[in-house]
Input
Amino acid sequence: MSSGYHIAVCGSLVPDPLQTLEPVAGPAGPGLKNELMMPSVLDPWAAHALYEAANLAKKVSGSKVWLVSLGPKARLQQLMMTIAQKVPFELVALDGPAGGFIDAGEVAGALAGAINGIAGLERDRLLLFGGCASAARDAGVTVQMVGEQLGITDQFLAVDELEVQPDGVLRLKERIEGGQYQVSTCAGPPVAVAWATGNLPEPPNNPQIGMANMRAIMPALQKAAPAKVSTGSTQYLEVKTPQVQRQTRVVKDASVDEIAAEIAAWVRS
Output
């Protein structure tokens, strides 16, 4: 195997979490009210995957990072204006909807096809990165399905740490129940890694990295292939914001033990 890794990071945009998200039913299926006008950010879990990929590529010489994104081309361009300043990567863009109601299987098929079409990507050096969940659609299965379609059977989910051993073996820490970690080793690529929050902070903006990235990002956006993804066979009978329930009772002179007992009884009920 040649030196270094080829790291394909699957990640796209989601509405800024500070916005009010109101689901609506439209002619093309369910979506969000004024979704096209909302500011977007890179999905938080995908962002962790991208930062971990860049950090690994910096440590292992000869490595290269691709960010494979499916979303509306115009909104991807806006997103890249900020993401491009964080870490070096090459963009592979797909023009299509990126809402939370899009079928994860169709998304996985589009992403796998895009990764297969990357010129110069070597399968025996491939690390497939992505988020273990999504702020738009918490299906938690997209990375696994992309890996399966690429023939990657070594898959690790909810990873917080990946370390390359001196002999090239990969050591990974995965979150499991009870706040514990499962530590696994893998001989090497190809491997699919779905990241949790990792251990790295968000990198500071670097205008030089941004300018270098944008020289390749703009042509990649212009060549973005259309992705025909939809809600699939899933049918939504209704989409609405959960109703807020508030039950307030004012009681004077109640002891701490009485308050605690009442709260416990309410939780049990």
Observations:
- Residues 49 and 130 are 5 Å apart (CA to CA).
